[in-house]
Hints:
Elements: E1 5-20, E2 23-27, E3 30-32, E4 36-41, E5 44-49, E6 53-54, E7 64-65, E8 68-73, E9 77-92, E10 96-97, E11 134-141, E12 144-151
Parallel strand pairs: 5-10
Antiparallel strand pairs: 1-2, 1-3, 1-9, 4-5, 6-7, 8-12, 11-12
Amino acid sequence: MKKFVISLVIMLFIFGSFTTNEKGFSISPHINFEDFSINEEGEYSTIEIEGCNYIHHAGYPMLPYYTKVYTFPAGTKINFVEVKAKNVETIHINKKIVPAMPPLPLNMQTNEYKIEEGEIYEKDEFYPSDWFDYNIGMGIKNGKHVVFLSIH
């Protein structure tokens, strides 16, 4: 990106609204990301947050993300999911975030890897463009059918 500005969430409030049996209820946990580190390695920086995974889209910045999974009884209808980011702090960094490398081939043998920046590095926009994403699925937990809501 032309200007590389990293917005880190100091406190992320995840709020989900769900409806079951004609009665509405909500879940409002608080998730804090106060302990993080920005490390400079060569011409790039990395961001580390304990307990987070990383976006691995080849050529795009390798940024941390947090996943929270909620479990509901089978038949639960989830009408909408809303995530609110609060107390967002913008931190300017001196170097670009390191791009993710491409996937390894199935034979696990790698040729020499060259770091390549994707098209997002040429754009002046946020990546990723959305604060959150979610998936809804069915499964079995402890022998019972349940609905899983995964918020990323």
